[in-house]
């Protein structure tokens, strides 16, 4: 019998790509999502790629009563927890929404896991926990700095909640995955990043500007201490990232984990600036992008990229897709949305 995995936020960007990879690997997947930043039609794309339409519940992880009913009706081997508000800029302006959604959802899941014999949880964390790093690239032993945004702080606090809960003797395991910057779309063009309203992330704003939905892209600052003055990030292909979750859940459920809580950085090990990303987009798309330099944005980190050796050597996972191919996949996804009249 296939092992059953609960994927929270499974109709979202990273969640949907991970569901595809889980199903391709033979897992049975159940998705819950409140559809606050995703569309239920994503299930169609998942089914077209994998040949399986996962069971879906429209549900909010902050609703503990609803979760309790879900756990009574289903038996889960493990959980991958994506459901969270995730925009740095928005979190600065709506901190309480971020603290309520991101902290309560995790606490509810953790409380329910022991009584329902769930073995472990893979947690979607972020490189934002490192704050403004002293040096790059950064590995898992780099110091945790004061968060630059409420969003980043929720990731720090959630990591601490998991570690404290496991340390208390809770009969679960956890693997915490600290992402760098996921971009791109599935090569099939069936799923990709589809934000509700104005995009909060860079690449969908680039592609929407390129296709003419947005009039102009704002680049937040060109006076940082970087080669071209714009911020530097470690951009990772979303399918590469999704595959890391499959490796992590297999490791956890097969009791290969060396510790009850393990932490891995997921990145390429290379940094690219915002202006470099724009140039790559213009190259692969043939479109000249309308952008302007504006003031710095509160909460942004100057430069950060991963030292992914631990994930490479311990998990046996490596980011493989090039930045050019990844940007091309995002552009193909955007063109497909336009052809369908979606966006």
Automatic annotation (TrEMBL):
GO cellular component: cytosol
NAD(P)-binding domain location: 6-328
Subunit structure: Homodimer.
Keywords, sorted A to Z: Carbohydrate metabolism, Isomerase, NAD
Coiled-coil stretches: none
Catalytic activity annotation: UDP-alpha-D-glucose = UDP-alpha-D-galactose
Stated name of the protein: UDP-glucose 4-epimerase
Annotated family: Belongs to the NAD(P)-dependent epimerase/dehydratase family.
Cofactor: NAD(+)
UniProt EC number: 5.1.3.2
Organism: Fermentimonas caenicola
Pfam families in the cross-refs: GDP_Man_Dehyd (PF16363)
Domain of life: Bacteria
Molecular function as annotated in GO: UDP-glucose 4-epimerase activity
Pathways per UniProt: Carbohydrate metabolism; galactose metabolism
InterPro entries noted in UniProt: NAD(P)-bd_dom (IPR016040), NAD(P)-bd_dom_sf (IPR036291), UDP_G4E (IPR005886)
GO biological process assignments: galactose metabolic process
């Amino acid at each position: 019998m296939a092992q059953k995995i609960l994927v929270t936020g499974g109709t979202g960007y990273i969640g949907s790509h991970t569901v595809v990879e889980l199903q391709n690997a033979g897992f049975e997947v159940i998705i819950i999502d409140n559809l606050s930043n995703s569309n239920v039609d994503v299930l169609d794309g998942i089914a077209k790629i994998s040949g399986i339409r996962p069971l879906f519940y429209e549900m909010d992880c902050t609703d503990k009563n609803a979760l309790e009913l879900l756990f009574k009706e289903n038996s889960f081997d493990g959980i991958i927890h994506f459901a969270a508000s995730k925009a740095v800029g928005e979190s600065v302006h709506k901190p309480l929404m971020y603290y309520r959604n991101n902290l309560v959802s995790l606490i509810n899941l953790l409380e329910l896991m022991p009584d329902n014999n769930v073995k472990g949880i893979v947690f979607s964390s972020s490189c934002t926990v490192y704050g403004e790093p002293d040096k790059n690239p950064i590995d898992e032993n780099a110091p945790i700095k004061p968060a630059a945004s409420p969003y980043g702080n929720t990731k720090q606090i959630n990591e601490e909640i998991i570690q404290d809960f496991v340390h208390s003797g809770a009969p679960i395991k956890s693997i915490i995955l600290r992402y760098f910057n996921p971009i791109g779309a599935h090569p099939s063009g069936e799923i990709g990043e589809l934000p509700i309203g104005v995009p909060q992330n860079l690449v969908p704003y680039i592609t929407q500007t390129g296709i003419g939905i947005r009039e102009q892209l704002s680049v937040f600052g060109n006076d940082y201490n970087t080669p071209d003055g714009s911020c530097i990030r470690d951009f990772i292909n979303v399918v590469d990232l999704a595959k890391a979750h499959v490796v992590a859940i297999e490791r956890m459920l097969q009791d290969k984990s060396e510790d009850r809580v393990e932490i891995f950085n997921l990145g390429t090990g290379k940094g690219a600036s915002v202006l470099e990303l724009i140039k790559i987009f213009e190259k692969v798309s043939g479109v000249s992008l309308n952008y302007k330099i504006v003031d710095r944005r509160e909460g942004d980190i100057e430069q950060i990229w991963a030292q992914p050796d631990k994930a490479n050597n311990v998990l046996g996972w490596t980011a493989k897709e090039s930045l050019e191919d990844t940007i091309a996949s995002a552009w193909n996804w955007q063109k497909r949305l336009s052809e369908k009249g979606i966006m």
